[in-house]
Amino acid sequence: MAVERPVAPVLYSFRRCPYAIRARLALAAAGLRPGRDLELREVSLKAKPPELLEASAKATVPVLVDGAAVIDESLAVMGWALERCDPQGWLSGWSTTETAAMDALIGENDGPFKHHLDRFKYASRFSADAGGERDGHRVAALAILCRWSRRLEPGGWLLGTRPSLADWALLPFVRQFRLADPQRFDAEPGLEALQSWLARFLAGPELAAVLEIPWAQRSPWPSPGWLYHLALRSEWQAARAAGVYRRSTRGRSLEEVGFIHLSQAHQLTATYGRYYADLDPGEVTLLALDPERLVAAGLEVRLEPAPGSGELFPHLHGPLPQSAVLWAERWRP
Length: 333
Ligand SMILES: N[C@@H](CCC(=O)N[C@@H](CS)C(=O)NCC(=O)O)C(=O)O
Prior knowledge:
Layout: E1 10-13, H1 18-29, E2 39-42, H2 50-55, E3 63-66, E4 69-71, H3 74-84, H4 96-121, H5 123-126, H6 130-151, H7 165-180, H8 182-187, H9 192-203, H10 205-210, E5 227-232, H11 233-242, E6 244-245, E7 247-249, E8 252-253, H12 254-257, E9 260-261, H13 268-275, E10 284-289, H14 291-296, E11 300-305, E12 312-317, E13 320-321, E14 325-330
Parallel strand pairs: 1-2
Antiparallel strand pairs: 1-3, 3-4, 5-10, 6-13, 7-8, 9-12, 10-14, 11-12
Bound molecules: glutathione.
């Protein structure tokens, strides 16, 4: 009798998102690994997969889907992970007063600090007077950092002699502040304790691990809800300039074949192996297509059998408009 395997939890994540980074830190600390204990789905924030939108209406990352449960706040994902296993005592072993201090620090980070950080780091998105206001937000964020720095004993952590949930939850945001101007951050007076606090995290293995594969994928997860085309990079670049793509497959045009060869997500690896494996992967671009946008553009996609195997492949009958392309990424076998 076939034994049904439990479906692993799914984590929707974005490599550079500080909220997703802190969730990954906790999941990794709990001993969980992508591929073994959970499925990691890297997303493009500009083109979120339909599965994420269906799971969580607000569709921010991270989102953890565990069976029927949808956890769509990074702190709750951290709690989910540490409830399973908290070997370093991020959450356990602290007094009620210490836990309240942790909550206050995280609240200050997620509230006022993040507010100023965004307006300092992404000034042009928030205001026309980018330059002047930007400095004001930097100063305000810096005042919070100085307060945090004063809490730290030299060589210590926010709540004493070992790192707690607060240190790990704040880390990606302080790192992001530093990344906006690393030299200035490192030379900032009054911040010495926090500078060495951050430097220790930056040199350690935990943060490095969740910024690398398998925790941080370089390309978005190919949703089964979308369609795909493997293109030669040079041909895709030429098409972008023209606004429309008219190649059918490698070495053949839409006019010669009558349609553009597409793949479903599960067919991609085999398609690459059959037609592009002799090329440097950097020469191949993966295009993710939104079937709804193709239909809206008056185009028809038919599932048709491939000669020989009879396997059904989607065929696009018409030129591919750039507007239907959700993302184009270097192919990563
Ligand atoms: N309160 C949420 C915030 C998560 C959040 O805002 N994530 C950003 C990326 S860093 C996001 O997904 N933004 C949605 C978007 O850009 O569309 C949490 O803690 O998980």
